[in-house]
Amino acid sequence: MDQAHIRNFSIIAHIDHGKSTLADRILQLTDTVADRDMKEQLLDSMELERERGITIKAQAVRVLWKGHQLNLIDTPGHVDFTYEVSRSLQACEGALLVVDAAQGIEAQTLANAYLAIENNLEIVPLVNKIDLPQADPDGAAAEVADLIGDDADNVLRISAKTGQGVEGVLDAIVERIPAPVGDSRAPARALIFDSSYDQYRGVIAFVRVVDGRFETRDNVRAMAQGTRFEAEELGFLSPQRSPVKALEAGEVGYVVTGLKDVSKLGVGDTLTVEKRPADEPLPGYKEVKPMVFAGLFPTDSDEYPELRDALERLKLNDGALFYEPETSQALGFGFRCGFLGLLHMEIVRERLEREFDLDLLVTAPNVAYRVQPRPDAEWLEVHNPAELPNELEAVEEPYIRASVIVPKEYVGAVMELCNERRGSFDHMEYLSEERVHLVYQLPLGEIVLDFYDALKSRTRGYASFDYDMAGFQPGTLVRVDVLVAGEPVDALSLIIHREFAYDRGKLLVERLRKEIPRQFFDVAIQAAIGSRVIARETVKAKRKDVLAKCYGGDISRKRKLLEKQKKGKKRMKQVGGVEVPQEAFLAVLNLDDKR
Amino acid sequence: MEQGRARHLYVHLPFCAHRCGYCDFVTAVGREDEHDRYVDALLAELALERRLLADDVGTIFLGGGTPTFTEPAALARLLAALPSADEVTVEANPETVSPKLAALLREHGVNRVSLGAQSFQPRLLQVLERRATPADVRAAVPTLRAAGFDNLSLDLIYGIPGQSAGDLARDLDAAIAREPEHLSCYELEAKPGTRFTHAHGDELARQAEAMEGYFEIVVETLTAAGYRWYETASFCRPDSSRDLRAQHNLGYWLGRDYLGIGVGAVSTVAGLRWRNAPSVGRYVAALGGGERPPRELEPLGADVQARERILLGLRLDEPLATAGLGDALDADAIERLERRGLARLRDDGAALELTPRGRFLGGGVTAELLAEGSS
After folding, report:
1. Which of A545, A549, A569 comes nearest B361 by C-beta?
2. Strand boundaries in A377-451, DSSP class E
């Protein structure tokens, strides 16, 4: 199709502000999906996505409207996937910015709106849910207009739920968003903005063709990674796969690659055709690096092979997932996994448990650290607290630029929380008379455990939060080890700012004393920095452990009681001859209850 | 011993004047008009299973319930019909013990009485919902002695809500002063969800730490008084002419076959265990029609039998012969427990025993000693 009749756009919205409902309504209005086939929120195809109301993997769907081809490129809605969002936005010329008429702008809306502005997208602002009784369309419209420097009159008012105003949205897409302006005669270039794995057809790349054209059977190369393949099939989603002979400049579609490994085709890479390759890739590709790490161990050590297979299969669909085998003295064989962020970790864990029926023990998450062991030595990246050397020259930790939006009465509470978490204030601004946008620099390590929960509870749920990675900075960090019966428990080591080490160490051993059941002997639990013990507790030995009555011939019941007791023991992990229940390894997670 | 025939007979008499809050045995309150028919049923079951019983029965144990609450005529009829045995024990509640009852038991071959004393303090007896008064408990012993009983056992319960260490010491002293040949001391088990736990759970939780040492107090006090701690919860006087251990229970602990008759009774003969259904009505009805009562069957594989020999045998103060137990014992665990001074192998590994401290922790220690099993 002539590029003049193509419009490529995304929808930017905070969770629950109605992105998926709007997408569904667009599919219906354009007769892309018959009413009777309409499933609630069709675009969110993974079960987990639908349940959580969030979009994890972007997809693209083509609709026709008044002689135009509109390509809706869905973006992941969460902070962990900022890079993927930015690639999806790069594939578009415009974006619908959706704001809930009752809620107004949220931190995530801001972050993604800024991303869209940086990508030079034409923004079509709209206020959704105007049918709600508590809606304040004018207030929300004013906030949005202010944010993007537009006139409030240009903000569309709709209800995706009832369909009111949605035709106007389609018209606005055609009228306001510019057509693509690629060079259709130039060597072919297409931006990969997403990929997925199909067990029969291999990796499927979702692309936006910028220049030239791709044809079925073309030999194709990914320019940054150098991966080569034959385009087995080209097509677009409507929303099911519809094959075409060629994809041309300006169009959005998919490429069936036959590749077996999704990580060979990174999001942001540029595809070109071998017979007449482009000289330069499209800008902006970067390798996604995991920032949050945790150990994943099977609860039953016999399930290690199942966990390995599951991770392999998950990785096919999730190029950002990183894993390597890890052996813990305490927990046995497992994997150290790297994630883009906390939500990503939670999703991976849930998918492993749900789709692969695994029972997992996930250690407390930590961030990636950069360590220089000696002066002039090379910097290392450490993904596991137990691996942080005791003697080191310097250590750096990742920081984030955190964006928090709250009603003004909670500004104090948020500042207090950020200060407790070693944050440094960057700036604040009033979005309206009532709502304030705060920006802080914070160590990522201070938010991986429970920052979001703490923020929600201190602001009665009113705060919205988003962040960007902001590079590494030096830190005064120490490793706190936990010793049970004199033996270090690698899975409980944590890296922490020296100032907090004593309090955290004390809390941790107190918590462990309650989690570790009494044994046949006294068990010392210590927290130590290097060889210096900073806190100690003792689990007193049991004095009795007998089944009282044992006669009347009812021996089966006693035997079953003992077998049950034995089973309970099997679920525990042996550390220095001490039976430690799995729950104890999560003690680190809950340390902040008392903070 | 004859193959496949039991030398130990258990007879269950479920009737009680009152069901105590902590009790989890099969019991039926009152129903005096049913006692006769129940005894008929017992005798019918005995007749049906007679071939499973050896010609020379070693022990008979009448348990309950409160066997001595059974109508005297019915009880006499039952006792008269039972085979003779070396040890015939009847459980009795102190308040039921009268010279008349004692004489009835003596006449019918009973030579051992196990008295459910539980405590000597009115307050604690009340908490346990026992009907006996301390005076009943004190009087029962001389009454039985006067009738000629020279083998008496007293049951005590410790860990009663509100029981202080001093209360326990007084109960133990009072029991010792009665000079019984045998004592059984059980820690009170408050099962979750029972009426008793509902009423006293909080108090027990509050006292849990203080009560941890009660088991030690019991063992120390009784051994100091000359009793032998021969089984986890059982003590007997040493006597050069008689073995005063509970011979019937010893049968269980040594893994011997036994036949149990009566409602809810369990039997284990030749690798098969069965348990009669716990309903008195169905029991009486089935046997009244000449049928066996409804039963739960449990075949015991060799592995299960080996595991039971370990868990029962280690309750005793004599070493457990390890021959034939190879697979059921975890060799690493034995080594670990030896290092901690809780168990030891003897005679080049031919026998295994727990140290005194190991016996206090016998449940956990045994669970550790058992190899990973399929059962």
Report:
1. A545
2. 380-382, 394-407, 424-430, 435-443
